[in-house]
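Re: the 282-residue chain
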Amino acid sequence: MSNTPSKGLLERFMGMLSGSDEPKNRAELIDILEDAEKNRLLKHDAMEMIRGAITVADRRVEDVMITRSQMVTLEMDKPLPELLNVMIESGHSRFPVIGKDIEDVRGLLLAKDVLRYFVLHEHEGFDLHTLLRPVVTVPESKRLDMALKEFRANHTHMALVADEHGVISGLLTIEDILEQIVGNIEDEHDLEDDEPEKIRQASTSHYIVDALTEIEDFNTYFDAELPTDEFDTIGGLVTHRLGHVPQKGEHCTLKGLKFQVINADERRVLQLSLHHNRDSEN
């Protein structure tokens, strides 16, 4: 009979429902669901979402957080026009506001609160302190499912991440957790008219560079002189210089420009961090 595998699978499901053939662990449950997908009883997208929901507890905050070097922050003492420029350029809706450094976090600023203020008061008597919201902090070691519960309990979408010594090591958003379940979530800023920005300015002298940025485009943007004869992209050049597939946190200096790998997988580098003053002489 051509549908015997499907019939057998349905019998397994019936056994699960009756309690006579319950999976003993998550691995067995995933095996059953994968069989359902192979037999077209479950769509691939649905399977991936179920797998994400089942395995999200296996991951920790440090696995998915935005690293410290990637964080876009607002400085408390900066003039309003400069703050607004950072907010607009980043495309984010929530920002940690800091004092003297990243360890001195004063609160969380929501773009919608700024917009509401201007609608009601225009520029009259703008005081950043009055718009700040409390910031939640979670440890790097916290399980993602528990972090999600904490987000829901605190009615917040963002938290700072601290390492075992209490030092701020990054940022976690509810979107970072949900993407582990439903896959990549693209917002309006991700889907701009053409391609996403390859080079993004995070602060006055800090840039986030997509590893697929063409070297010629990079040279034009920074008035740099990186070689273009052997490799097409910044990621390829950095990988060649290091001599292996880079891991997150590795450094590489090219023509006086110091790059740090901030995102990579087992096959290639994905994102780089660069501190560079474009107004200074190369």
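The chain has a mean pLDDT of 82.
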